[in-house]
Amino acid sequence: MGEELKHTPFGPGHRRDYRRKVQLCLDVFETMLAQSSFDFEKPLTGMEIECNLVDSQYQPAMSNSEVLAAIADPAYQTELGAYNIEFNVPPRRLPGRAALDLEADVRASLNAAEAKASTDGAHIVMIGILPTLMPEHLTGSWMSESIRYQALNDSIFTARGEDIMIDIAGPERLSLQTASIAPESACTSMQLHLQVSPADFADNWNAAQVLAGPQLALGANSPFFFGHHLWSETRIELFAQATDTRPDELKTQGVRPRVWFGERWITSIFDLFEENVRYFPSLLPELSDEDPVAELAEGRTPALSELRLHNGTIYRWNRPVYDVVNGRPHLRVENRVLPAGPTVLDMMANSAFYYGALRALSEEDRPLWTKMSFAAAHANFLESAQRGMQARLYWPELGEVTPDELVLRQLLPLADEARVAALCPDQEALVRLSQRLELIGFYAFSPDTSRPGRAAGARMFAPYYGIAEESATGMAAGPLACFLHERMGVAGPRLLIEQGYLMHPPSPSLITVDLKLARGRIEQLLAGGLARVQHEVVLEL
To answer: Is 261 within a domain?
Structure first.
């Protein structure tokens, strides 16, 4: 959940003053992007997991207050529905074994929370929409005890001026009216955060938008709502309709919805915050005492509370985040595409795929968003929400393709390559290991590369010999080719091993390994390649 509110209700004066304050915060944010130092040198990932509470019969259990008291862990908080809780996973970096450690930590924490919740007769389950949820569960005391949630409900209906119509077409159409935002509480998601620099934000956000369609096709798990079979990931459309502040007339006029994919590729995070301020009126116009101009002038980091609160009421599927930790500002891309669950393993696999593919797509020399329209990315997203793995997606250079073909042929190789790219070895530790084990160096490889025709991409670290990273290692490429052929079934007789592409800066090489085969066994190999002069240096002794 967001921060609790201090003041309600809000009058016209609140909204007028809030609008001015939000604009002031936006101006200060623009100055900070140009002048301030943002924290991104050791980028962190974060995760929020929204969960459902059920009883022994898997019916919604409206007992999150009691369950949270039993869990007694600040990482667990309330969510909109009294049958919802949220688990905030502590931020961390993702090199090395971090993904496996993350899985172990998430599993241990959820198991501990489940054990404590069960003492109150409740159990924790994770899924995009709880399939046992029925209309009768969302009457009476369905909402968590929170001023913020009640104020949000009231503001949405004040803006609409009428009840919300839920109308979702699928194999079994659902049509109903609701006098509260209760259906929103049915939508539980996993939110993935990635800390980035101001300069890299646009590339990462654009890449996340491109990735949203196939990401959703893989993760969809909520086809049912109120006993009706609807979309493969019904949560997407249900959330959009349940929080819609627009009556039909404003929809017809083209007023933008608050649950929004967006409408264009961006060049800066400022583009998104500027859209927020220009297009969307406030829902929770609470004013802080901070003067952001004065804070910045005094050399302190302004909280920009109004800008952040306003941003929290605009539900982009990839949301920009400004935050301050220990007095240092930072920026994050918050990916809100995936449903929660259904298992810890599913969520960890989905997150590893997202982070790996995102890194690869955001660092491409010619990014995908320069080859496809924004409308195509949006169409992929909706198609995946409706049809899941049966969707037909547009992809540059492939045309129309199924999600499994796209992921297996294009995106998983990118994600695997990105893990090799993300390696940041402890050079001193490698020196000690090399001495102890009498090694020349350490050779990391991925059998998947983004370039067709390559058998593997590799990196070589040999700090014991004064080589932090080597751009071409023929004596390592030869054994690797043997391993690929004999143990991984890569067909010979010629294998291409790329190296140096992932160095900083890149120093690309391509090593050709020719295998002499007899009766399917390797009898001889030749590893080599061509070199060209990139720089000439003249030394005067």
So the answer is: yes
pLDDT (tens, 9 = 90+) of the chain, 541 residues, equals 556 566 566 777 788 999 999 999 999 999 999 998 898 877 789 999 999 999 999 999 999 999 999 999 999 999 999 999 999 999 988 766 778 889 999 999 999 999 999 998 999 999 999 999 999 999 989 999 999 999 999 999 999 999 999 999 999 999 999 999 999 999 999 999 999 999 999 999 999 999 999 999 999 999 999 999 999 999 999 999 999 999 999 999 999 999 999 999 999 999 999 999 999 999 999 999 999 999 999 999 999 999 999 999 999 999 999 999 999 999 999 999 999 999 999 999 999 999 989 988 998 888 999 999 999 999 999 999 999 999 999 999 899 999 999 998 888 877 666 667 767 788 888 898 888 888 888 898 887 676 667 888 888 999 888 898 998 888 899 899 888 888 777 877 888 998 887 777 778 888 999 988 887 788 888 998 876 666 677 777 7
Q: Where are the alpha helices (DSSP H) in 259-331?
A: 269-279, 292-297, 305-311
Domain boundary among 332, 364, 389: 389
Do 162 and 245 touch, CB atoms closer than 8 A? no
Residue 538 falls within a domain, yes or no? no
Instruction: Give yes or no: residues 187 and 279 share one domain.
Output: yes
Furthest-apart CA atoms within the chain: distance in Å: 88
Q: How many domains does the chain have?
A: 2
| Domain containing residue 454: CATH number | 3.10.310.10
Distance CA 142, CA 220 (A): 26
Residue 36: in which H helix or E strand, if any?
Answer: none
Residue with tokens 């009766």: 519
Q: 485 near 495, Cβ under 8 Å?
A: yes
Tokens 């609008």 identify what position? Answer: 19
Q: Which domain holds residue 462?
A: 425-528
Last residue of a domain, one of 340, 372, 389: 389
